[in-house]
Amino acid sequence: MQIINFQSFFGPRVGVLDNDFVVDVLASHQANPAFTHEAAVHLGNTISVIEHWQVLRPGFEQAVANSIESGVGRIPSAQVHLLAPMIPSSILCSGSNYLSHNAEKANADISGKEPEFFIKTGDCVVGPGANIVLDRVLTQKLDGEVELAVVIGKPGRHIPKERALEHVFGYTIVNDVTARDRQVRSRPDGSFWYELGRGKFFDSSAPLGPCITTADELGDPQNLMVRSWVNGELRQISSTSQMIWSVAELVHFFSVNVTLRPGMVIITGTPSGTAWSTDTELGGRWSGTDGMVPAKGYLKDGDRVICEIDKIGRLENTVIENR
Asked: What is the pLDDT of residue 111?
């Protein structure tokens, strides 16, 4: 099942993507009840839905079936404005998690040895179709990174790798937008170090969506193709099989630091093809394959960015310069 948020006349609503239609779950339920009264109170937002999914799932399935039969609450997706499918409390981020990305850039001391841990929050999130803001006061080198995002569904601390996927509700896409000139700093000897606060955490630095595909529907998270385009040029293509640390290993890793809770998101790193790879001033070494086009520069006003992952969909955003 693919869970979404969309803008309705009454405000944001939780829905389901069903082929070329959006199912307004609450509208379908109001016309033909699919939930008990006690369950229906949890339909207000996606995190509440995730927390109570075991109770709510049969009702979601019934609401979709009812919408097919009656047409109530069933809207052509082209007529719907999608929002970010959720606003996570925390986005726990793993950098340098693809060997191909490590090979194209200046590396930190721990690159390839352990996940490079940094954090974003819901304040960074924008949804499908929303603008990525290029703020020249902050950065002259705005870059994008397509990443598989893991949505936590079951709480836990010190989760063993063997049980880690039991704590996953589903998966979505994040574009880990990055201010490279804030992230990558040089030393007098020509080596580089990272500052991952200002380089990663800022307005619109986490486009997220278009949906959350539930874990049972997505299947193996280590067997998905990942791609990104800028203005129609293929910038990134790889498979999640190329991750250094698997989804299960990352869930275990982050759970050592904090209790993972429903609605938290873990993002899993990006493959090669970023604009950084063509920036020799910051240690870039482009080495793309499979029809990839090297970036001619960093993101600029008007650029159209598409991030795609199998079984989830496409996340599209436009860069707008803040003047």
From this structure: 67
Q: Quickly count: other Cβ atoms within 10 Å of residue 196's Cβ.
A: 17
Upstream peptide bond of 262 is cis (omega within 30 degrees of 0): no
Q: Give the C-alpha separation, 199 to 191, whole Å.
A: 18
Residues with Cβ within 8 Å of 134's Cβ and at least 6 positions away in sequence, in order, are 142, 299, 300, 301, 319, 320, 321, 322
Q: Which CATH number covers residue 107?
A: 3.90.850.10
Reading the block at residue 117, the tokens are: 């841990």
121-155 burial, b at 16+ Cβ within 10 Å, e below that, comes to: ebebbbbbebebbbeeebbebbbbbbbbbbbbbbe
Residues of the chain with pLDDT under 50: none
Integer Cα distance of 94 and 108 in angstroms: 13
Last residue in a domain, options 66, 82, 98: 82
pLDDT score at 185: 86
**Mapping DSSP to helix (H, G, I), strand (E, B) and coil, where does residue 301 land?**
coil
Q: What does the pLDDT read at residue 107? A: 65
Give the Cα separation of 207 and 128 in Å (integer): 7
- Enter the tokens of residue 269: 């790193």
Same domain, 31 and 159: no
**pTM score:** 0.96
- Work out how many domains the chain is built from and give that number: 2
Last residue of a domain, one of 27, 57, 82: 82
81: nearest Cα among 140, 168, 11? 11
Number of Cβ atoms within 10 Å of the Cβ of 305: 21
Q: Which domain holds residue 43?
A: 2-82
**What tokens were used for 131?**
């603008």
Q: Read off the pLDDT of residues 233-255 as tens digits, 9 standing for 90 and up.
A: 999 999 999 999 999 999 999 99
Please check whether residue 16 is in contact with residue 23, taking contact to mean a CB–CB distance below 8 angstroms.
yes
